[in-house]
Design brief:
This protein has 259 residues and is an alpha+beta fold. The protein folds into 2 domains: 82 residues, no CATH class; 141 residues, Glutaredoxin. Helix content is 22%, strand content 17%. The strands form 3 sheets. It has a 6-stranded mixed β-sheet with strand order 6-9-8-7-11-12. The chain has a 4-stranded antiparallel β-sheet with strand order 1-2-4-5, with no helix packed on it. The protein has a two-stranded antiparallel sheet with strand order 3-10. The two termini are 17 Å apart.
């Protein structure tokens, strides 16, 4: 029998699929296109509102996606700008299990008997921990953000993710996965400041974790619930209009952490 938590998120998925910006054409997995063509033209013209791109990325356009129902503004039909991802959408899907080469294990990713802890450990391909490995994932939400020392948008995101880490120490584990090595990370966000980062930072210079989710614009983050390892939020935590705020996190905690 499905737990009330699983049933809720099934209903939430159905509800979220009914919400979209006008005239968007969407595929079943949540990727939408606009008649306007270029999604980037819909990003608000505010400094710091966009991502930094993976070197060599040929396309800098974002996917317009349907946001979580929790991100729909109360009492309003829509937000002024649609939500965008510079990665594949995994909303309401299990975090994938990865081989040592970083390939998604197709025969395992649909195993419903795996716990969230098993799924997270099966996904994380970390070469080393820059500062400290998280103590325990059990019974907590996990926020994973992809970043790099060269990423200017990641520097703007750092203050937000550090604040989230400090604000919810018992409800949430926060991890940054850097595609740059320890020497480069020492100077993030500024020279000699890397050692001051309080949340866990893992190093994955091969981009196995990021590539598995199709991430080409960073910072990109996913929030994983503590029961089955399902991704319940995804995006840039400081994207204008779709920030991962304390109130939004509390809504997830109120459901996912009920005993």
């Amino acid at each position: 029998m499905k737990s009330p938590y699983s049933i809720f998120f099934s209903l939430l998925l159905i509800s979220s699929l009914s919400f979209a910006a006008d005239k968007l054409q969407c595929t079943p997995d949540g990727v939408c296109t606009s008649p306007a063509g270029k999604a980037s033209s819909l990003v608000p013209p505010v400094a710091g509102s966009g991502p930094s791109f993976k070197p060599g990325t040929s396309s800098h356009e974002g996917h317009i996606v349907k946001p979580s129902q929790f991100e729909k503004p109360a009492g309003q039909a829509s937000k002024p700008y649609p939500k965008q991802l510079w990665a594949n959408s995994f909303l309401f899907r299990e975090l994938p299990l990865l081989s040592e080469e970083g390939k998604i294990e197709e025969d395992q990713k649909h195993d419903k008997n795996l716990s969230a802890v098993d799924r997270i450990n099966g996904y994380l391909k970390i070469e080393s921990w820059y500062n400290h490995k998280p103590a325990d994932f059990k019974g907590k939400f996990v926020l994973i953000e992809f970043a790099a020392s060269w990423c200017s948008a990641c520097k703007r995101s750092l203050k937000h993710i550090e604040r989230i880490h400090a604000t919810f120490p018992t409800e949430l584990v926060v991890i940054s996965i850097f595609e740059t090595d320890a020497l480069a990370n020492n100077d993030f966000p500024r020279k000699g400041e890397g050692e001051n980062i309080k949340h866990s930072v893992g190093i994955d210079t091969q981009r196995r974790c990021a590539n598995a989710l199709g991430v080409y614009g960073i910072p990109h983050a996913v929030l994983i619930e503590p029961e089955s390892g399902v991704i319940v939020w995804e995006g840039m935590i400081h994207q204008i209009g779709y920030e991962l705020s304390d109130n939004l996190l509390k809504k997830f905690f109120a459901i996912g952490l009920k005993k």
